[in-house]
Amino acid sequence: MPTTPARAFPEDFLWGTATAAYQVEGAAAEDGRGPSIWDTFSHTPGRVDHGDTGDVACDHYHRLEEDLGILARLGVGAYRFSISWPRVLPGGGDRLNRRGLDFYSRLVDGLLERGVAPVATLYHWDLPQELEDAGGWPHRDTALRFAEYAHRMGEALGDRVHTWITLNEPWCSAYLGYASGVHAPGRTDPAGALAAVHHLNLGHGLAVQALRATAAPPARVAVTLNLHHVRGVSERDAEAVRRVDALANRAFLGPMLDGAYPRDLIEATASVTDWAFVHDSDEATACQALDLLGVNYYSPVLVRARDGETADGPASPWIACGDVEFVRQPGPYTEMGWSIDETGLTELLLRLHGDRPSLPLMITENGAAFADVLDGDGRVRDERRVDYLRRHLTAVADAIDAGADVRGYFVWSLMDNFEWAHGYAKRFGIVYVDRETLDRTWKDSAHWYRDVVATGTVPDPS
Ligand code: FCB
Predict the structure, then answer these.
(1) Which superfamily is assigned to 7-458 in CATH?
(2) What is the largest CA-CA distance in the chain?
(3) Which of 132, 169, 342, 419 is an active site residue?
(4) In whole numbers, what is the pLDDT of the chain averaged over residues?
């Protein structure tokens, strides 16, 4: 068996774990929290596997001290969490819910006391339901509300948060929420989805401005994108690759980093929308200087050109891609059916670095779901997750060695949680959560990761 040498990371590399509010907190109707689109969606029969909801989730809201203890024992330098917008501003209006805010204040203070840097995501998909009722992300006003929310959080927590992330994976919010409808709010309206893309970009830019105006320097501001590493089956598929790259990546990178939507995106989607929702200075507003680009990576994408248009299938997130076929990739696969291919991560990081050498990168999510079992002796032997993490961290080290400026890595996830439309069936945690008792048990991967963090080195697997 070929051996992989141990890989050492830079001294100041930031090691972390990540979660998101709706996936872990529970306490959905407590202390003045308002409903989000995920409460409505998960309570709608047929939307989430097994009818699971985030009502209780991991009960992190009530088990904060215990979970802070786990983070401290893991020894991570940072923890990425998200703030539930309807918990702090119920209804999405301007009335601050002190009890909701107090939870995040205690979380941030608890992290700082333990030497863990708080990395706060403002929007990890839980839009206040009232804002969806008023039109949701396809509606311009949502971006303005988002900016107000960012402003309030910057004022309240900006003296203590280490890094702010405006949006998590706006690709999912726009295309899964409004085109394919497999995520909340479950709409299937391609034109609305493209309007959502734009208002997310606009909201991001306005939120960066609000955070810069309120948070104490040196607050870092970033956005997290699930950038797709797209490959073609053959060279003849270059146009298919370009189309998917435009929708998936450049629809966000363009306005956020270059201040303009790519021409080919506008042209490819011309039959769906005329993009009239883009007002004169919007692209400039979306384009704010960032301290970091957050990258979430799970698996690459493989496409090829299809001969002729397809017949109408189920609603797709891939707007105007009827002539593109998404090809199933060779295994092995995770429990999500996602191919395990860490080479895509190295290639993606090098592309991003090559395109914008001065913008530091951070892996804000990477991890895998497997069918973990809690053995009778109290251990979870998740060697496949250890292998996945080792491969992907080695891929990050390869990118760093080749010149990419990667500042940190966050495992998705700290603990098993509510995996959106899949409910609790998919376990991504390095800590196992018993669905009956909600007891937490360290998986083997958590022990392994603690050692990686302690030594700053990914060990040789032998
Ligand atoms: C990402 C999400 C995160 C989690 C992982 C598996 O798309 O940001 O909340 O569900 O996938």
Answers:
(1) Glycosidases (3.20.20.80)
(2) 63
(3) 169
(4) 97
- Closest residue by CA, ligand 1 atom 4: 419
pLDDT score recorded for residue 218: 75
Beta strand pairing call for 117-123 and 163-168: parallel
Tell me how far the alpha carbon of residue 113 lies from the centroid of ligand 1, in angstroms. Answer: 28
Q: Look up 169 and say whether it is catalytic.
A: yes
**Residues 181-235 pLDDT 10s:** 999 999 999 999 999 999 999 999 999 999 999 999 878 999 999 999 999 999 9
Task: Quote the pLDDT of residue 217.
Answer: 82
The token pair that represents 339 in the structure block: 């191919």
Residue 421's alpha-carbon distances to 120, 185, 200, 234, 316, in angstroms, are: 23, 12, 21, 33, 16
The residue contributing the CA closest to ligand 1 atom 10 is 419
The pLDDT, as a whole number, for residue 86 is 98
Known catalytic membership, residue 365: yes
Mutation probe of ligand 1 site: the residue of 420, 427, 430 with most atoms within 8 A of C-beta: 420
Paired with 224 in beta bridges are 168, 294
Name the closest-CA residue to atom 5, ligand 1: 412
Rounded (5°) CA angle 85-105-143: 25
Say if residues 212 and 220 touch (Cβ distance below 8 Å).
no
Gap from CA of 118 to ligand 1 centroid (Å): 19
Low-confidence ranges of the chain (pLDDT < 70): 1-4, 309-312
Q: Within 246-366, where are the H helices?
A: 251-253, 263-268, 282-286, 343-355
Distance (Å) from CA 394 to ligand 1 centroid: 21
